[in-house]
Write a structure and sequence with these properties.
single chain, 303 residues, alpha/beta, Arc Repressor Mutant, subunit A, D-Maltodextrin-Binding Protein, domain 2, two-stranded antiparallel ribbon, 10 helices
Amino acid sequence: MLPHWDDLRLFLAVARAETLSTAAKTVRKDAATLGRRVARLERDLDVVLFRKSPQGYALTEAGLRLRDQAEAAEAAMRAATEGIGGAGRPEADAGLTGQVRIGAPDGCANYVLPQVCAALGRDHPGLDVQIVALPRVFNLSRREADLAIGVSAPTAGQLTVQRMTDYRLHFAASETYLEQSAPLTTLEDLQRHRVVGYIPDMIFDRELDYLADAGVARVALASNSVAVQLNLLRQGGGVGVVHDFALPFAPGLRRVLRNDLSLSRSFYLIRHQSDTRDARLNRFAELLVKAVRAEVARLEDQI
């Protein structure tokens, strides 16, 4: 028996959330009803889709295959619905519409995406953009976001990866701190300074372990947030590695040790493979990449 689309929709919610309670909030049904619908789908297909345990619902091999097929159907249905909805409406051709959620590390989310997304919103009044700023890797299979920006290119999973732009980082400190502290002319001088950086055991990507390249063993003031680190530096907390594109937002900071440490990293746009059939998301991704590249270049040119 072929499953109904509503059954597949509920199946996808459980597959992405991995628990009935979380999925139930997403689809606005109670967990017991959702559990019965999943059980009915398994009976109709005569296959076990989930391994159930106190920890939640984990997909079986059959479940993984159905998830991929259901996501393809979801993308096709979304594209078809948008096409029908826009037919005969000239204003629909003027721009993108609907909701798009972007997951991004908080440095990009705080200092690049606000300008980019504000401009996209002006150009596309029917577009709703959500920025999720979290210091971790996003799980696109669970639909935590439609697109994610990462600082490294994932090598596993059904994902497509596009390099967006390179960006630069340097040590920086406030003018007040530098005036009141010991000389800082070489990397060895860092031993006599307070260092601001990431909480070591909360670094979620090797590309963010900037201080290891400088041989720094102790982080006196630490946070898992780039924005918090920047504010610690602005308050004279010490010396830390800063994105060059963030410096225009912190005029009291000055780059130091530029000849001793100059880092280059990249932003990558990461999407679920099934979404590459979605014309709307493809267009949004194209505009996003172009705008992020231009905004990083603009900000870095200001310093």
